């Protein structure tokens, strides 16, 4: 059973995902409006609608500046949520070190990895603000990798990780800005 701590970041994550879906749907609904040439040309609308649905990804590459801005802001919020969750995980790891002496070495390794992950995410935010989307991807992927490495430290010593759910959720959080930016095809 999950504790409340593992759920407290979910509302913000849900909000981000909803915002991204809304931007996606609004853009597609605008792109699929009937062609107006003074007549009710149903076949032109159907043709336009089919071509947009068939080339969904291509359509999103050309989304409006407003949509781009909203998606980039959502990616920044996703990075900030990831940073907050990483910091919260550091607090949890400190508490686990006090109560779980048998895993102290692994947990110490996780502290190092989560500190590194936070710095990577802070660098990703800086890169995002400068328009360096490729750098955002690299830093966010590195942060997700740090959580994975934390988990691997327990497996290497054949110990059960008390951080499995947190590590997985952190990796998922780090993937969210990558997903948002991939909608824009700005790798």
From TrEMBL:
UniProt key word Signal: yes
UniProt keyword annotations, A-Z: Disulfide bond, Signal
Residues annotated as transmembrane: none
GO MF: enzyme inhibitor activity
Pfam families: PMEI
Signal peptide feature range: 1-31
Domain Pectinesterase inhibitor span(s) in chain numbering: 47-180
Alphabetized PANTHER family for the sequence: PECTINESTERASE INHIBITOR 5-RELATED (PTHR36710:SF18), PECTINESTERASE INHIBITOR-LIKE (PTHR36710)
Family in the record: Belongs to the PMEI family.
UniProt-recorded name of the protein: Pectinesterase inhibitor domain-containing protein
């Amino acid at each position: 059973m999950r504790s409340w701590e593992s759920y407290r970041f979910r509302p913000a994550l849900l909000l981000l995902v909803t915002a991204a879906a809304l931007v996606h749907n609004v853009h597609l609904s605008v792109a699929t409006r009937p062609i107006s040439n003074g007549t009710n040309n149903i076949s032109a609308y159907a043709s336009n609608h089919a071509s947009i649905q068939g080339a969904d990804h291509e359509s999103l590459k050309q989304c409006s500046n407003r949509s781009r801005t909203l998606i980039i802001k959502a990616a920044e919020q996703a990075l900030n949520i990831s940073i907050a969750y990483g910091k919260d995980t550091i607090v949890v790891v400190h508490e686990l070190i006090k109560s779980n002496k048998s895993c102290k070495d692994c947990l110490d390794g996780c502290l190092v990895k989560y500190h590194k992950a936070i710095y990577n995410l802070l660098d990703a935010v800086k890169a995002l603000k400068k328009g360096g989307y490729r750098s955002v991807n690299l830093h966010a992927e590195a942060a997700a990798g740090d959580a994975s490495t934390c988990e691997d430290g327990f497996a290497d010593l054949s110990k059960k990780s008390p951080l499995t759910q947190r590590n997985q959720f952190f990796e998922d959080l780090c993937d969210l800005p990558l997903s948002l930016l991939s909608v824009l095809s700005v790798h």
